[in-house]
Amino acid sequence: MRAPGIRIASGPAPMVAVPRLELPAHGTGWQDRPPGGDQPLAARRRRRRRRPARTAWPIAALLLGYPVWWALGLGGLSVVVLAAPMAAVLWRRRPIRAPKGFGLWALLLTGYLVSALALAETPDGTYGELAAGRVIGYLMRLAVYVSLLIMVLYLGNLTHDELPQRTLVRWLGVLFLTAVAGGLLGVLAPGFAFTSPMEMVLPPSIGGHPFVANLIHPTAAQMQHVLGHAAPRPEAPFEWANAWGSDVSVLVIWFVVGWWAYGGPYRRVAAVLVLAVAAVPVVYSLNRGLWIGLGVSAAYLVIRGGRPLVAAAAAALAAAVFLLSPLSGIVAQRLDNPHSNGIRAFTVATTVRVATSSPVIGYGNTRTAYGSHRTVTTGRSAWCVECGHPPLGSDGQLWLLLISQGFAGALLYAAFFAGAVRRYWADRSPIGKAGTLVMIIVLLYMVVYDGLISALTLFLISFALLWRNAAVTTDLGEAR
């Protein structure tokens, strides 16, 4: 009698020693136990998945070690440093899988390379010749774009045994705790700052550039006059105050997923306490974009949360507690002092006008315009660094793309994230809903926040989580 599933070849068969199969005494089948194993295969796999593989260490170093990178003066630039070992892992794993829609990001990167041809151009209404600062800024952004491309491919090519989804989500939650701690530091000790090792190493000609200085000089807060008087706005451990707001609004989404949706009762109680504490630096950040983002997230939770009545009741309770607290007065005071509206209106209008003169490739980097929102004669100079206004393209990723890569680059960026919303909207898992929300927030923030560097890193990690989640669904469908 033939054993099922065994093919018998014609001709004389060689003598083969067949190991004896021992059926277990209990009710599970032998196929659930690996040879020599005492536990079911599923249990062994679950135990293995609790700890990520060594190949996932660059992501652990990026998210869990972020305070160390910040102290070294490499907070936002840590992804550039870690891109090298990620690229080495990818090289050994050829062929490399890529997500759908990633060609748009490749085109965006290609367009940025082409935009270098216009670095020496000085469009009408701007001033400044090609200098080291402009080239350094371009090269740093190029390094970030390439590093982020490597990071997404690296995450997507790690197996779920090597880096489980929930582990990655909880690492993002740990970074949220770090951001809350940094925010509290900015509120309680706004003057805290120190010289980083990177700042000591770089020559003044590079380290003194404003863009570079923001990246390598660790500070707890920025002192700004948005309320009519000097007030601290938390920024640790990120590049600047707006980066802190953008990053916190993304990290809190993954914190809720990891600590509430996938958390036990004790973890959920801890999550509520952490969110209550986080409200303090969130309010003191005076960040209207962050507040709007949190409002959008709350509305999204009510609509797609699965339990709309519970979500609406929780949101109403949180709003009531906030309105009865002293923090509500700070919010009202901030809304009554739209300090930056005039500056933003001037830079945005000027950016669009300048971008129309090079709509396809842009100018490779930001530019400085003559005048300000108050006068056409005042501009920033060596003897008056506070005069004028921020560089064109510094009021949001959309405007940065317009000035550096033209309308073509801005369209590719928006199409990449909008395509992710359309592609992954049907994923109703907690990770799928959270990742789609982040993609929506990216499209919202592109008009108010500069995405580089830490914010764009979190955006693309969220995209990678969506891609990995879809890969699991596809694999299960094929197995069936």
UniProtKB/TrEMBL annotation:
It comes from the Bacteria. This is O-antigen ligase family protein. The chain crosses the membrane at residues 68-90, 102-120, 135-156, 168-194, 243-262, 269-284, 313-332, 398-425, 437-467. The keyword Lyase does not apply. Keywords: Membrane, Transmembrane, Transmembrane helix. Residues 25-49 are annotated as: Disordered.
